[in-house]
Amino acid sequence: xxxxxxxxxxxxxxxxxxxxxxxxxxxxxxxxxxxxxxxxxxxxxxxxxxxxxxxxxxxxxxxxxxxxxxxxxxxxxxxxxxxxxxxxxxxxxxxxxxxxxxxxxxxxxxxxxxxxxxxxxxxxxxxxxxxxxxxxxxxxxxxxxxxxxxxxxxxxxxxxxxxxxxxxxxxxxxxxxxxxxx
Length: 182
Known about the structure:
By secondary structure, this protein is mostly helical. The chain has helices at 10-15, 20-23, 33-43, 48-55, 61-70, 76-88, 96-107, 112-122, 131-141, 152-175. The protein is 60% helix and 0% strand.
């Protein structure tokens, strides 16, 4: 049997491969300071079009996870629709928790419909995982009616991710000289 060779694009090598493992699912809540510093440094170079490309990666969850986090580095009014669209099509587990936190932060109540669409998909018993209740907690946070009452653990996970998203947004902006670059 031949060797399988996987080629990463320059974009994936720079913005995805070094970061996605600790940033997937609810992992960003426990972000190590060294990795946070690397993310902030790289955030100063990411462009709006690169973030859009990552968010539109579809079924490829690794770029989607990092597109979600790097969306905090670009102007929120220019990227929030892309984040909300990605939220609606999230398949759960690895992408839904970060998308829920970043959608809530950037779009607020405008993300309710996308969060509910995601919750319907991942709420199917065959696909249900811990992300279902995290999305429910996000829906409640932005003023919507969640499909289930989230457990205290899921609410805590959401709040920690939301707080991390807000912290990263401020750090990314500071790394860009106080502004989110186009």
